[in-house]
Amino acid sequence: MKKIEAIIRPFKLEDVKVALVNAGIVGMTVSEVRGFGRQKGQVERYRGSEFTVEFLQKLKVEVVVADESVETVLKSIADAAKTGEIGDGKIFISPIESVVRIRTGEKDGSAL
User: Fold this and answer.
1) Residue 111 banded pLDDT, cuts 50, 70, 90
2) Which of 78, 69, 86 is nearest to 27 (CA)?
């Protein structure tokens, strides 16, 4: 099993959700996060004053999938989240040792 974490632009969430549902993913966790990378923030104006927003608002989408689904999910997220501009985000893949469904006690593959 693998955990896939994708940092995406907020307005791309619906596209990513639809792509994941179409790929057979039935659950996901979404968190509001802030950060910066090569985009290095942006300059904004408020009441005539300029200021730099260093930490940009992003969303983190997390899913745990079976090993054989990783490439499909990875491609689905990347295609749905891409705008072609700096700041589209990143996708991280990590191994998961075990999963337990709290309600039923099911473990690993059957808990997904």
Assistant:
1) confident
2) 69
Helix or strand (DSSP H, E) at 72: helix 70-81
Is residue 35 scored above 90 in pLDDT?
no
Euclidean distance between CA atoms 16 and 31, whole angstroms:
14
Cα dihedral: 95, 3, 37, 56 (round 10): -150
Contact 51, 43 (CB under 8 A): yes
What tokens appear for 31 in the block?
A: 């968190």
Structure tokens at 93: 């893949």
Per the DSSP assignment, residues forming a β-bridge with 56 are 35
Per-chain mean pLDDT for the chain: 89
**Residue listed under structure tokens 């300029």:** 50
Q: What residue ranges define each of the domains in the chain, with the CATH number in brackets?
A: 2-111 (3.30.70.120)
Taking only the tens place, the pLDDT of each residue in 68-100 is 999 999 999 999 999 998 888 999 999 999 999
Token pair 């730099």 is found at 52
